[in-house]
Design a protein that fits this description.
Helices cover 49% and strands 24% of the residues. It has 4 helices and 7 strands. α1 packs antiparallel against α2. 19% of the residues are buried.
C-alpha cells in the first residue's frame, strides 16, 4: 500500500549519527537532575516511594535513549530538480516539500553542544510562516555545501520569474 511518504526514485540522505548522541546527552541531563531531586528527597524524607520514583526515571531514560536513535534515523532530506524534500518522524511523520523558487534565505546554526559534536542545523526560510524545513545534525562541511547549493538554486529559480 502506497502512502504520501513513499516517493519512488527518491534517494534520501540521512543526517549524522552524532545527533543521536546530542539528543541523548540532553535527555540524560534532565533525568540526572530528576534523580538528584529524588536522592535529596530520599535522604531528607525516607520512603520506599523514592525508590519507585528513581526506577521510573531510569526507565524513562532508557526509553529516551532508544527513541533518540529511532527519531534520528527517521530524519532525512533529498534534493530534486525543482524542490527539496525533508522528512522526519516515526509515529507522527511529516514530509516537507520546499520549491527552490519559494526559498527566501537559508540559515545555518550551531549551538555550543552542536559545535562540540561537530554538527550544524540548516533551516530554510520561505514566505510562509508555517514552513518547517529544518535539517538538524549535518556535519559542518555538508551544512555549508547544502547552504551554498540551495542558495544558488533558489536564486536561479527566482531569476527565471
Amino acid at each position: 500500500m502506497s502512502t504520501p511518504f513513499d516517493l519512488p526514485g527518491v534517494e534520501w540522505t540521512p543526517v549524522s549519527d552524532r545527533l543521536v548522541l546530542g539528543r541523548r546527552l540532553v535527555a540524560s541531563a534532565g533525568v540526572a537532575l530528576g534523580l538528584a531531586l529524588v536522592v535529596a528527597g530520599a535522604v531528607l524524607l525516607w520512603s520506599p516511594w523514592w525508590l519507585a520514583a528513581a526506577a521510573v526515571l531510569l526507565a524513562l531514560e532508557g526509553w529516551q535513549w532508544w527513541l533518540a536513535g529511532r527519531q534520528v534515523r527517521a530524519i532525512g532530506y533529498a534534493e530534486r530538480e525543482e524542490d527539496l524534500l525533508v522528512r522526519r518522524g516515526i509515529l507522527f511523520r511529516s514530509l516537507a516539500v520546499v520549491p527552490y523558487g519559494r526559498m527566501q534565505y537559508v540559515d545555518v546554526s550551531a549551538g555550543p553542544l552542536e559545535r562540540w559534536l561537530g554538527i550544524a542545523t540548516v533551516q530554510l526560510h520561505t514566505a510562509s510562516a508555517s514552513s518547517d524545513a529544518t535539517i538538524p545534525g549535518l556535519r559542518p562541511e555538508e551544512a555549508a555545501r547544502l547552504r551554498d547549493r540551495l542558495s544558488r538554486r533558489g536564486e536561479a529559480r527566482l531569476a527565471g520569474l
